[in-house]
Design a protein that fits this description.
eight-stranded mixed β-sheet, Sec_Metab_Biosynth_Oxidored, 11 helices, 10 strands, binds NADP nicotinamide-adenine-dinucleotide phosphate, Rossmann fold, oxidoreductase activity, alpha/beta, single chain, SDR_fam, Short subunit dehydrogenase
């Protein structure tokens, strides 16, 4: 039986994927903070099928905490023998800079550091799967020079656009590290083709809140429709790195020194977020 791990699996696109894979007969580990959302999701997905309930696990974790992300990795390594698919879809949009109780910039940890810790920490479980895949919903296509290596937590001149572009680029480079650590891994950086009518969790400014509330219902895709390409990547993974918007394949963004930049990111996380 496949084991599918979905961060942000309690809402939006992550929840759509969790429901799909539970109905398809997979074991699904849903990661989020809200047990109540998981219970509602399971009630809808299981629909009286006790085997679905037995195949679903809720693992509570705050992925804006590096310590909690590491604890989650240890939990998964203790309880599972393989991870066939890891879908990274947790999201909490912050338009303003926010520092966590661990003293780190929240979006950098949630949108990159936790993903780095999961992808590298679960390498052994991914290697143990027949055809492993990581789908990172970071939206490909940011500029190759979007990372400020001198100030990764953007203590100077933080803007939402800068923070967003930086984590998107970092997640593409995470694919360099991931595919090196797990030969045969399919690592897909993916973004929806257009706006998705999802939870839009976050601390949003008035403009973005209004845009989500007005445009979502008008032009937004249903999460169940938006995630169809992701289901395809999980069911028929293609080894190596790739980038997609919706079902459309994009060229990978290639910088002048991607290997070195990926190594710099790894070194920064290991230094700035030491274990224990
Ligand atoms: N919606 C769009 O139009 C759109 C466009 C481009 C890219 N994306 C990307 O697609 C992915 C999914 O987005 P979505 O809109 O479907 O998300 P969403 O509906 O807003 O749901 C966010 C999910 O993240 C979880 N989450 C939030 N903060 C967390 C934290 N600190 N620790 C752990 N889990 C946390 C939430 O769980 P709890 O509530 O249980 O904490 C929830 O399950 C994201 O990567 C997003 O950037 C979405």
């Amino acid at each position: 039986m496949r084991t599918i791990v979905v961060t942000g699996g309690t809402d939006g696109m992550g929840a759509a994927l969790a429901r799909h894979f539970l109905k398809a007969g997979d074991r699904v580990v849903v990661i989020g903070r809200s047990r109540a959302k998981f219970d509602a999701l399971l009630a809808a997905a299981a629909d009286g099928d006790p085997s679905a309930t037995a195949r679903a696990e809720f693992a509570a974790a705050d992925l804006s905490s590096a310590a909690d992300s590491r604890r989650l990795v240890k939990h998964l390594r203790t309880h599972y023998e393989h991870v066939d698919a890891l879908v990274l879809a947790a999201s909490f949009i912050r338009q303003r800079r926010h520092v966590t109780s661990e003293g780190h910039e929240a979006s950098w940890v949630l949108f990159f550091v936790s993903k780095y810790l999961l992808v590298t920490g679960l390498a052994g479980l991914l290697r143990a799967a027949g055809r492993p895949v990581v789908v990172n919903t970071a939206v490909p296509g940011a500029r190759a020079d979007a990372i400020d290596f001198g100030d990764l937590e953007l203590t100077r001149g933080y803007t939402f656009a800068k923070s967003n572009a930086q984590q998107r680029r970092a997640n593409e480079l995470l694919g360099v590290l991931a595919t090196r650590g797990v030969p045969g891994l399919a690592y897909v950086t993916w973004g929806p083709a257009r706006l998705v009518r999802s939870g839009f969790a976050g601390d949003l400014g008035k403009g973005m809140k209004t845009a989500a509330a007005v445009l979502g219902p008008l032009v937004g895709q249903r999460p169940d429709d938006a995630v169809r390409p992701i289901i395809g990547f999980v069911d028929a993974p293609s080894p190596g790195r790739s980038a997609y918007r919706g079902a459309r394949k994009l060229p990978l963004t290639v910088g002048t020194d991607d290997e070195r930049d990926a190594a710099r990111l790894a070194e920064a996380v290991e230094n700035d977020f030491p274990d224990g």
